[in-house]
Design brief:
56 residues; N-terminal domain of TfIIb; binds zinc ion
Length: 56
């Protein structure tokens, strides 16, 4: 499994971002700078966003 990309919506500003499901770095919103994910056990842990769509 190589992982997949996830389209998410920022909980703070509703801006959309595309993140890698196995991202191991903190991803910040490109609009407001809120933290969208942090790393947990080798996969992205969504903390400030809602998944809109998973792209295989
Ligand atoms: Zn935002």
């Amino acid at each position: 499994m190589a992982g997949s990309f996830i389209k998410v919506s920022c909980n703070d500003c509703a801006g959309e971002a595309i993140i890698f499901s196995r991202s191991t770095t903190v991803v910040s919103c490109g609009v407001c700078g809120a933290t969208l994910t942090n790393s947990s056990g080798g996969k992205a842990n969504l903390v400030g966003c809602t998944v809109l769509e998973t792209m295989e």
